[in-house]
Amino acid sequence: MLFLRVQNYDFTGVFPEGDFRVIFMLCFDAKRPQVPDFDKFAPNQLKMSPKAPQNLSRRSFIRNISLASAVLLTGKVANLSAAEVFELRSKVKLRFVVASDSHYGQPNTLFDEMIEKMTGVVNQFHNSSKLDFCVINGDIIHDDKKFLEPAKQKLDALTMPYYVTRGNHDMVTPEHWQQVWNMPLNHDVTVNNTGIILGDTSDGKGGYVSPDLQWLESRLEAHKNKKQVLLFLHIPQAKWTKHAIDTPALFELIGRYSNIKAVFHGHEHDQDGVKMQGTIPFLFDSHIGGNWGTAYKGFRVVELLKDGTLITYMMNPVDKLNELKY
C-alpha cells in the first residue's frame, strides 16, 4: 500500500525575477516507512542566493532539496535522494509542463494577471530546464466564448510548443475551437517518440462528459508500438473527487494498453496530488486561475527519462500580486 505526503519548499532566486516553491510528493512503502521530519527544518535552510545562476549547479541543487524527496513513478514507487534526482536530469527524454483552469474572463478575478504570471514563470522555467511542450488542460476561459481568442493571444506568449484541451467552462462549439486553435477537440501528436493524446470531456454547454472512447481506442491503437503514451483529459473519469464523473469503460480500455504512462486531469482546483489505478498514475495540477482551490496557483512539471521512468513535481511561484500566489 502506498501513502502520499505533500511538503512545500521555498526556492528563492532560482530563476530571474521570480520565486518558486517546489512541492515534492513523497511516496513510501507502508512496510518500510521512511518519513523525514519535515517540520524541523527552518525555511531559510532551503533558500538559494538571489545571485544563483539560471542553470543550477549540482552542488546548489543538492544543497537545496537534499531534505526532500521526489515521487518516482515506474509502475512501482520509490524514493529518490536529491543527488539521484539531479543525476537523472541528464537522462531526461521528455520534459513538459501541464497547467489547467486559467478561467480567463471570470468576473471579479485578476484573470489577465494570472495567465500572464503563468506564461512568464513557465518561460523562466523553460530558460533553465528546456521544455519540449506545455499542455493547458481545460477551462482556459470562463464560459463566455468572446474570451477564447484573447486567451489564445496570452498563451501565445509561451516560448515552447503548447497544446490545449476543452474543459466544461470552455463553452464553444467544435467549429469555433478549431478556428481559434487550428486543432480539433480530440487530437494527438508525437513528441520524441512519445504519444500525446488530448481528449475532449465537455459538451460545449458546461456539462461533463466521457471522452469519445471509439476515437480514443483508435489513437491508442495508432500509438501501441510506442514505449510511452500520455493521456490528457480535463474532467476526472472516476469519482475520486467531488466534481468527477464515472466512466468505467475508460478504465477497461486503458487497461488493455500497457504503454500508457500517466493520465492528467484538470478541473479539480483543490487537487495537486496523484490517484493510482493499478500502475497508472492519474495526476492533478492545482489551478492557474479562478476563484477557488489550493491556496497557491501552480503547474506540474513532468520528466520522462530514457529508461521510461517518470518523475513529476509541482512548481509554485511564490511572488504575490494582491491576493494571488504562484
Helix and strand topology:
Blueprint: E1 2-15, E2 18-29, H1 58-65, E3 70-73, E4 77-80, H2 82-88, E5 92-99, H3 111-128, E6 133-137, H4 148-155, E7 162-165, H5 174-181, E8 187-191, E9 194-199, H6 213-222, E10 229-233, H7 248-254, E11 260-265, E12 274-277, E13 280-284, E14 299-305, E15 310-317, E16 320-321, E17 324-325
Parallel strand pairs: 5-6, 6-7, 9-10, 10-11, 11-13
Antiparallel strand pairs: 1-2, 2-15, 3-4, 3-15, 5-14, 8-9, 12-13, 14-15, 16-17
Helix pairs in contact: 1-2
Q: Roughly how many Å apart are the termini? A: 32 Å
Q: Which residue ranges are poorly predicted, with pLDDT under 50 across at least 5 consecutive positions? A: 1-54, 64-71, 318-326
- What is the percentage of strand-forming residues? 25-35%
Report Rg: 19 Å
Number of helices: 7
Amount of helix: 10-25%
Principal-axis shape: globular
CATH topology: Purple Acid Phosphatase, chain A, domain 2
Number of structural domains: 1
Mean pLDDT, to the nearest integer, reads 78
Which CATH first-tier class would you pick? Answer: Alpha Beta
Specify the biggest β-sheet.
Answer: 9 strands, mixed
Structural class: alpha/beta
CATH homologous superfamily identity: Metallo-dependent phosphatases
**Any idea what the CATH architecture is?**
4-Layer Sandwich
H-E string: EEHEEHEHEHEHEEHEHEEEEEEE
Tally of strands: 17
